[in-house]
Amino acid sequence: MRLRTFLSILLMVGLTYAIADLAVRNRQVLQHEVQLWGEVSLRVATLLLLAVLAGIVSTVIFGISREIGRLMEAWRSWRERRRTEEIEEEYSRGLIAQLEGRDEEALAHFRAVLERDSRHFNTLLKLGELLRQQGRFRDAVEYHEKARHLREDDMRPLYALCEDHEAMGDLARARKMLDQILARHRQSPAAWRRLRDLNVKAGEWEAALRAQQQLEKLLGARGASGADLGTAQGIRYELAKQRLEAGRGRDAVQMLKRLLRQDARFIPAHVLLGEAHLRDGDETRALEAWQRGFESTGSPIFLTLLEEHYLARDNPLGAIEALKRCAAAVRKDTLAKFYLGKLYFRLEMLDDAQQVLGSLEGRARYAPMLHYLLGRIHERRKNFAQAAAEYRKVIREVEPVELEYRCQGCRSNFSEWQDRCPDCGRWNTVEVNFREEIPLEELGVAPAPVYAQPDSPRSP
Fold first, then answer.
1. How many Å from the N-terminal Cα to the C-terminal Cα in the chain?
2. 8 A C-beta contact, residue 1 and residue 7
3. Helix H segments across 118-170?
4. Following DSSP, what letter does each residue of 210-222 receive, concatenated?
């Protein structure tokens, strides 16, 4: 029994006792009549009885009405709870359909949810996401805007809108969404990373560097991931390239040297440093930069640069000496000697070419270009039987024998070396496709580190 009910009963008993006691002691008073209105009059006892009955009836009515109210409220709560459960079941069916790739069915479930509750926040987000995946960007923006107005303090709609505008190609608006996020959450690494990546995509290298510096402040030296550090290298490299194109060669050289002090295996920085020295008219430093690049990375791009540089200046002996120096500077010289032999063949120095390339036989199990060049040498010397034997080795191993470059990240092929893969956006991943020549492991060349632009984190 509740305390309030007990006290009410106690009060009623007390009042009843008081009235009874009053009636016993004042019998004569209770017999008096009281004139009410007109000729209507009632005894005092009758009035007291009517007053008690009125109190009891009003109490009963009040109690019944209160219980009815409680029952109605419980029924309404049950009905609302049941409605919510049905909506969530419909939403769950939409999520499952989306995960299983049944997009049209998922759209139908999500729209059914919104028909019953147009303010269902998670459905607005998911429906917008699904429409974006289908290329219906404006519809996606509409639903994500509704979600944003529902919960202005929730960052998820802003992240979703950022992705919508980016998918539409409107990078300026995408960055505005991130600016709004950062205005409220200045210490968000995810937002700074996303802003950096958008600026990288837009080629806004100064803005990308500012975002990267903010990210580095937040994460500290130990908190940054390998992908973040690699992207930082790529941004600074692009800034150096930008300064070089703008005629600020000295600034570019200083930036590139700082990059190489941080990571001597960053191939594009070595390549661009040599080009910067060449533009400044300092050929000696340019060649030294490429020589150091080969010694630090073992990348064949430097052998090609040195060879083409000397041949473009009608100095084949300089090219030969440069490749000889490269071969002498490294412990495993198979790659440099292969390029030297190829250069001899190109210069029609067949005896030297055969001597150098012949010394490489047996040092690589898979070298179709090597056998192809030896076959060409024997063919020019009219040694057709030996030439045919070399060609048969080529046919056994592989059909293509052209020099190609391949991205180690996305496996795209190119006819020329690239400092950054145009397909996947990663730096320092494009190398000679050694599956068409000599495997890296057998040539003693360690794979270069990958400097990648990471994926846009999802909104938290």
1. 50
2. no
3. 121-133, 137-150, 156-168
4. HHHHHHHHHHHHH
Provide the residue type at 31 as one letter.
Q
- 383 confidence band (pLDDT: 50, 70, 90): confident
pLDDT tens across 122-179, in order? 999 999 999 999 999 999 999 999 999 999 899 999 999 999 999 999 999 999 999 9
Confidence of residue 444 (pLDDT cuts 50, 70, 90): very low
Sign of CA dihedral 301, 307, 310, 312: negative
**Residues with Cβ within 8 Å of residue 384, at least 6 apart in sequence:** 378
Instruction: Quick: pLDDT tens for 350-377.
Output: 889 889 888 887 776 667 788 888 888 8
Short-list 308, 267, 302, 282, CA closest to 419:
267
Q: How many CB atoms lie within 10 A of CB 43?
A: 14
| Distance from C-alpha of 7 to C-alpha of 41, rounded to nearest angstrom | 35
Return the residue matching tokens 């505005």: 176
* 277, containing H or E segment: helix 267-279
What DSSP character marks residue 331?
S
Give CA angle at 50 (49, 52), nearest 5°.
65
- Nearest CA to 348 out of 367, 329, 376 is that of 376
Token pair 């440069």 is found at 322
Strand pairing partners for 405?
414, 432
Q: Go through 340-366 and write b for each residue having 16 or more CB atoms within 10 A of its CB, e for each that does not.
A: bbbbbbeeebeebbbebbeebeebbee
Structure tokens at 23: 């009636």
Token pair in block for residue 267: 């191939």
What's the length of the chain? 460
Tokens 């990078």 correspond to what residue? Answer: 171
CA 370 from centre of chain: 42
Residue 185 DSSP label:
-
**Average pLDDT of the segment spanning 336-341:** 90
3 state DSSP class of 419? coil
Res 294 pLDDT > 90: yes
Which amino acid is it at 222?
R
pTM of whole model > 0.90?
no
Smallest CA-to-CA distance from 447 within 424, 431, 435 is with: 431
Looking only at the bridges linking them, the beta strands covering 40-43 and 33-37 are antiparallel
Distance from C-alpha of 144 to C-alpha of 123, rounded to nearest angstrom: 10
Other beta carbons less than 10 A from residue 257's beta carbon: 15
